[in-house]
Amino acid sequence: MDIEFESVERIKAYQEELLARQLEYLAEHSPYYRELFSRNRIDISSVTHLEDLARLPFTEKADLQRRNWDFLCIPREQIIDYITTSGTLGDPVTFGCSERDLQRLAFNEHKSFACAGLGKGDVLQLMTTIDKRFMAGLAYWLGIRDLGAGIIRVGNGVPELQWDTIMRLHPTAIMCVPSFILRLIEYAEQNGIDYRHSSIRKIIGIGEGLRNQDFSLNLLGQRIHEKWPEVHLFATYSSTEMSATFSECEFGCGGHVHPELIIVEIIGDDGMPVPDGMPGEVVITTLGVEAMPLLRFRTGDIAAKVVEPCRCGRHSYRLTPLLGRKNNMLKLKGTTIYPPAINDVLDNTPFVLNYVVVARTSSSGTDDVLVRIGLRPDVSADHASLIHNLKDRFRARLRVAPEVEILPADVIQQINFPAKSRKPVKFIDERH
User: Fold this and answer.
1) Per-residue model confidence (pLDDT) at position 90
2) Is the Cα torsion angle 162, 163, 165, 166 positive or negative in sign?
């Protein structure tokens, strides 16, 4: 039986068994963790319960960058696939995956897609890159194959090509960044495509939130639902470091953890675990990763753990939608906000085509936020009235309004998609 449907007590005991194996594996094969255990005089045999993890040091992204290959637990010739993710010190961090790691990725995404109700007979149109050393696209492809469903690898962007594929091949689900759905809808409306009666029945969102902390749809999710009520929206959360995905089930009440793949802690500013239901930083320990496993890795993402059983029958804990990244928290005019909350307002403003949010330090040492927007080509109102309108939208949603600047849409486009980027750049932190 799937461990997610077992009792909470059985899930915890199972994770503790896997943790003991993982610690032994790290002590034997990881140069970085072997040194860490020795330097801190850590007896791994004393770590018998999940609560004992709090006694172990954290792993930071800067550690991965400084000591990248010291995390490798297998000979280089056993690496099958190379992946990179952004680093905090400028250069990307490299991850190697063994054949077993790729099988684990396939299993992870198989479970995640099944959680969202996909199965044999479904066809998923993948609107994200599968190249450029990007783990996610590869994982989705592996997972769909393992599930026995079909996949159409279209890649990101180009609404015309996406709709041509949908009309030709009739996929039942699409997977993309949620804000791109609005572009798909807009293209369909402008070109007479009856998108509401297309073959699409599910949309799986990646990289952007669709829900608020109470699991209601956020502004972006509401706008998609109002325009396309026939489809069921699913949000996901994942990262390269986790090698795992938290996917919503049909009830949309948080991303389900796969207990055999990852342990999650939620910590406060003091580095200690916070009570269940309270937001804090997501800290992960990977289970079953062969090439580059991680122990107590600080993701920088802010979320809360939900431990109540879900209506779908799973008893594994879930994560709430992300509030944002810890390092990206803004204190604007006395109000704490995260960039996703700003993005949600902008994604729901009809005259905004694209945007970038810039955080700066003011002369007094406080946070300043400048929102640069590009306008849709059919917008004719004067800039002053549009800026006033947008600031009113911010105040209604966030209680405060950042500064707003209007630039040509093609200038914003170049900022959003620099040459080496695999994801759109919507937040730039220029603070000291």
Assistant:
1) 53
2) positive
Task: Say which amino acid occupies 211.
Answer: R
Please, what are the domains in the chain? Answer: 1-323 (3.40.50.12780), 329-429 (3.30.300.30)
Closest listed residue to residue 347, CA positions, set 336, 335, 357: 357
Summarised one tens digit per residue, pLDDT across range 213-254 is 999 999 889 999 999 999 999 999 998 999 999 999 999 999
Q: What three-state secondary structure class fits 82? A: strand
- Structure pTM? 0.86
**Of the candidates 298, 295, 247, which has an alpha carbon nearest to the alpha carbon of residue 108?**
247
- Tokens encoding 61: 């992204």
Q: How would you label 65-90 residue by residue, b for 16+ Cβ within 10 Å and e otherwise?
A: beebebbbbbeeebbebebbbebeee
Q: What is the DSSP string of 234-300?
A: EEEEEETTTTEEEE--TT-SSEEP-TTTEEEEEE-TTSSBPPTTS-EEEEEEESS-SSS--SSEEEE
Are 196 and 164 within 8 A, CB to CB? no
